[in-house]
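Quick illustration, no need to memorize.
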Amino acid sequence: MAAQSRFRDDAVAVPDRQPVPDGPGAADDRHPVDERLPPLRMFTSGLQHVAAMYAGVVAPPMIVGPAVGLTAKETAFLMGASLFTAGVATLLQTLGFWRVGARLPFVNGVSFAGVTPMIAIGKDRGHEGITVVFGAIIVAGLLGFVLAPYFCRLVRFFPPVVTGTVITLIGLSLLPVAFNWSQGGNATADGYGSATNISMAAATLVIVLALRRLLRGFLQQIAILLGLVAGTLIAIPAGITDFGALKDAEPVGFPTPFHFGAPQFETAAVISMCIVMLVCMTESTADMLALGRIVGRPADERTIEGGLRADTLGSAVSPLFNGFMCSAFAQNIGLVAMTKVRSRFVVAAGGVILVVLGMVPVAASVIALVPLPVLGGAGIVLFGSVAASGIQTLATAALEKGENALIVAAAVGTGLIPIAAPDFYHAFPKDLLVVLDSGISTGCIVAIVLNLAFNHLGRKAGTAEEEPVAAGPVTAR
């Protein structure tokens, strides 16, 4: 037992907590999560992760910048800083140090959960507003880092009936993002929802599916990346590829620390962002549990603790380089599920690419050439894969026993409210909307509470319903 305990403190964990052999044949026994691919495959697979998350990383600063009164050039600076800090946070997650990092193929980026409160904090206040936002994020990140060892103990309350529900909701909640991208991404822009945009999304979707069906081996694994390239090339004569960002981009632009001034700390802003941090920690916990099942290495308390520490530390450090709060990117979980490339070093390569893009704006602009309708077509497959993984998990949740089916029904129904009726909670206080407007968060909370009520309270320890998510068998994909 002592040796086992020491191993769990090591930098790299492996399934069933067995050490990796270092003798002959060791490489054959290494878990796919710890596999190091050849350089070309590492780069292209990592680039595929970057392509899948790029729009999600730059969208929050694109929204927040103008809302707080920043110029177009300052907003572009925020976008580069967000790419840089997303890369740093991703490296913390995949490679880690000490007890920081889940050491799974886990991508981190700017959280959408903070967009609304950040706008409320800094609206029309210019540089002062953005420094108040940064100060609140620093405090929220440090608080989350302190809470991580305690928050991770909630893993025993995430059996398959809960995790399957949350994973399904993650996929369903992301699909509207793909639909919005497919229409053009900006509802106020000319051509939003046009036949051209939707046709490009449909063409990209067909190309990705065809490549997955016809290709084999490595080329099949990067079908998403190839589909994005093909879709972008087709979009050029269609006139929806914007080269403006590439023309105006500077060759080098490191995100200077405290570019907008020293962070400021206002109590109301700090409280608001601390609530957002708790929401992000809840979603990250669910994402780690989902990813652990997909890659065949169930996420235990130690893994979740390390992942939450990476999330929160990345968030606390991001404002130093003018970045926002970092959390898990669920769309990349879909990419892992679809490609079956489970190596965390592939995602680490994506993290390095993000860091480079953050320091070389002209390189970032090349990625930005991918039109949103093209990205939306690929996103339908990516996000649908997440929902499919959730359904697979629910298949192991013994829905015929007890009230498990009722738990899923209530949690999924509640989680779909923000998607099906976006204005449902319009009369509620704005602070509550941070949680209520996230179907993932509300569905997760409902699933946890109902699982406690039906499967834990009044039951004896050791029943099947009380098994933690990591205890069951996981099928390698």
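Residues 418 and 437 are 6 Å apart (CA to CA).
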